[in-house]
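Notebook entry, structure prediction.
Reason for the run: the old model in the group folder had no record of what sequence produced it. Starting over properly, with the input documented here first.
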Amino acid sequence: MHFGDSHTAADSFSLAKFAEFQAEFGNGVRVSSSPQPDDNAASRVSAGQLGWIIEGIGGRVPADRILGPAGIALSTAATDERAWLQAPANHFEIYYVRQPGGGRVEISVDGLSVVDRPLTLNAPKPQFHSFRYDTPGTKLTRIEIRTVGEGEGKNPGHRR
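New structure, fully documented this time:
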């Protein structure tokens, strides 16, 4: 299940999948679109600084053609770039790629680091990884990724 992007919020994707699932599994299928706990848009915020490159759906395709579950990839060559999501939730998942030239990132929740040390994104070949974090209860929570180190290898500073 994936939810939270424009194509699911608009039901263009979820309704098409509903028809496919119903055809295969019958009338017991239930499909829901992105959860909307309330109509307050301020309770759901995602943003990033200008140094991030966004590739994927509706835009450029990365040279390595690696995209995340939402059909996009974020990368930057700059140190101290930040991207964040703020939402009423208690479970967060970050999907990332370790690859040649990858840098390092710090992950924080509500301003506090949740990793022992920055995650190294450098690897001899692309490798998919994920980071999961649960808070004690559902509340408005901000999870943030910050680049903290230069990349290594042939693409200095590249992070995804």
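Summary: Strands lie at 45-48, 53-56, 72-75, 82-98, 104-109, 112-113, 119-120, 127-149.
The old model has been moved to the deprecated folder.
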